[in-house]
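hey m, so remember when u said the tokens were messed up on ur end? i reran from scratch. heres the input so u can diff it against urs
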Amino acid sequence: MPTYSWPIKAFTDDSYHRVSAGHLQPVLDTLVHLRHRTDVWFEITTLLIPGHNDSDAEIDAECGWIADHLGPDVPLHFTAFHPDFKIPRGR
């Protein structure tokens, strides 16, 4: 069975667009498709960037959405951002 680590860069469309220039909904649609229409095993990883996507509300919304739409058995990992490369502090 294929295994994937799928990044969710943020959990509001505004934050997602600022971080990646993309949109959140296509990512969510893909995850629902993978979960309910394939046999792919995947885990979700979210890089927490201070001031961009690390609010309690955004993290709560992501966790709730995953539990409701993908199920409580989909692994979710949070990783810490280190501002050593490309994104200046205070942005």
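this time it looks ok to me. The longest helix spans residues 24-37. if urs says something different then somethings off w ur setup not the seq
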